[in-house]
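Sorry, any thoughts here?
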Amino acid sequence: MISDDKIAEIRQAARISEFVTPHVALKRRGRSLLGLCPFHNEKTPSFSVDDERGFYHCFGCSAGGNVFKFLMEIERLTFPEAVRKVAERYAIPVPEVAGTLERRDPGSYEINASAASYYRRFLVETEHGRPFRDYLAGRGVGDEAAERFVIGAASPSGTGLAKWLAKEGVDLRKAAELGLLVDRGGTAYDRFRDRLMFPIRDAQGRVIGFGGRQVEAADGPKYLNSPESEVYQKSRALYGIYEARDALRHAPSVLLVEGYLDVIALSEAGIHNVVATCGTALTIEQARMVRRYVADVVTLFDGDEAGKRAAARAFPIFIEAGIWAKGLSLPDGEDPDTFVRKAGAEAMLERIKGAVPLTEAFLEHTVAAGGKDPASIARVCAELASVLAKVADPFEHDALVRKAAHSAGISDEVLRREARRGVARSRGREVEAEPKRAATNVGTQRGGAAGPDESLVSLLLADGAVVSVIGTRNVVDLMEQSVWRDLARDMIASARDGRSIDPAEVLDRLPDQLRARVAARLLDDSLGDRARRERMMEDCIRSIERAARRRHNAGVLGDMRKTEQIRAGEIPHETLTGWRPRNSSDA
């Protein structure tokens, strides 16, 4: 383990642009550097680097962090590897101390990796692996693709993996917790038997689970996936995300398919920007994971009715994740695997270009599933409204309302009203005749300007002198919004303990929208020079104190009214001991 003090020393010594420029062409713009984001495809630069404060932020995909995070993301390094690489650049020695840097037991990943190695060797090196090799050859999967995706096979014996892991010194109880083994009468047996094995890896390339496929008719399910474990949650996993990661940095979109062999077939055809769900319907977590890489998604579902239903069900999930996805239905009886092998990559790419918005599939499926009677129309209206309630952009909302109302044969106003009710129910409050504008930002003032809490945290990040002053003033506890109050407390505590403040770590604790606003304030010159920052600090302190007095006095009045101490025209002065007089600035 590398000590926290040593990590801070290395981070402070680093000039982050030195590690970014081999991957991104940066140009000076004001106090920061600007370039095209390496983590998503874009034509207009939105990737900013601040050497002085040691962080980067992309205003397009919300990627951000310090120098270690950048190296971990761009070069697929572990945290210790990234720290050592930076230390080596500046000739800083890195002594080790006892402990571990892993947040989760690294044994879980090592055990899964050992299992993947066993499956791979069984497929390639044994005579029992021949039927699986023949199956892959018949499906058109070449040796290079099989190696790239680490495809393997499970022995039919039922004890092959258990013996392998025991020989490797693995705790078999731990392997059972990961879903590799099952305990029967005190004896460990393999969960996966006589199956083609597809390791599922996370974005860092670590094996987190497996999918096993029968290649011949037999008892049991055709596909068997790992159960959920401490490292594998199928709702948060995407098959092929590791293999597709480089392609997604430059591709205009990601292709989402349903099967492991679909991913492999498309990749073999030279279409690498493709991932698959892991034996489950699309989840919001998977949609948000995709959104980190690209803004556009094209779904490639089977051409049968089940594929069309899957496309329709995916639309509301993409909408909630802020993605207006497109869909492509293949001819009946075809899936991406069979189609690309028969028709070729060019034919598949032409089809992808012709993908249509999933809005069409969703509306067609939703309306067709209803009937013509009033009760059925009401159910359709309610389902459409529940999706509309998730569309935050007013222009997108209006366009979808009009299209949905036309498809369902109902009026725009009815659908808008139902959508407003859905928003109100989701917020747990009564529906009003007209919708009110929702506050989308924490601590913002009228007009969208940053409130004093947010402004003060920005100043604390921008200027160490502000941290010193605020640490001596009783103002942080008066801050109204907990998200800003907690950040301010932690920064002041770090300064008091002699620890440096890492802006990237502070920004990482904020939701995307707030992080982007604070990052923008740090990267441009809006915080001005030292004198301007001092004036802004005093303004923030006065505003926070004034707001705290108002909240306090409102609470006192509320308590007095509850106990009926305030009656018509009579104010009992003896009850006002907690009252805080207003300053002239409170008016």
User: Anything to note?
Assistant: The chain has five domains: 4-89, 106-232, 240-361, 377-426, 450-561.
